[in-house]
Known about the structure:
There is one protein chain. By secondary structure, the protein is an alpha+beta fold. The protein is built from six helices and four strands, in the order H-H-H-E-H-H-E-E-H-E. The chain has helices spanning 2-5, 13-53, 56-64, 86-91, 95-113, 142-158, and strands at 77-83, 119-124, 127-132, 172-178. The protein has a four-stranded antiparallel beta sheet with strand order 2-3-1-4, covered by helices on one side. Helix 5 crosses helix 6. 12% of the residues are buried.
Amino acid sequence: QFKGINKGRKTNIIDSMLRMLEQYSSNLEDLIRERTEELEIEKQKTDKLLTQMLPPSVAEALKMGTPVEPEYFEEVTLYFSDIVGFTTISAMSEPIEVVDLLNDLYTLFDAIIGSHDVYKVETIGDAYMVASGLPKRNGNRHAGEIANMSLDILSAVGSFRMRHMPEVPVRIRIGLHSG
């Protein structure tokens, strides 16, 4: 049986066992290295997603396992918007066309908010919510930041076209609350 394993070669059984153990060990080390790299990539994806969904300070606290205490913000301005006639547009579109519309529009919005002192709170369906004055306080600049951002978004939406219905203009409804 041993000659069969060694392909007919005459070798010392101990040498063969050691060689097989070394090969197994090497294969195991490669497998562990590969799995560790995969785990690190997944961890980076998770961290990126967490910081996109939550303010950086909250994300860090959650990763560290420390409790996140609620915080009161005295001065904040909120921006809300939605697409006028979104239900009708959705009814006249394929699901992937709706996804493309929202992805294109919110990619445009995300690029605009990057040049303002604001924080994107949430996007749900066609609703887009942004805040200024939190999670970083910015004194009394919050209302001006949101107002200027709103004007920039309105300007950009004026030339925005849906891929699948370029002849239909996209209009948005904007609401602001400051306090």
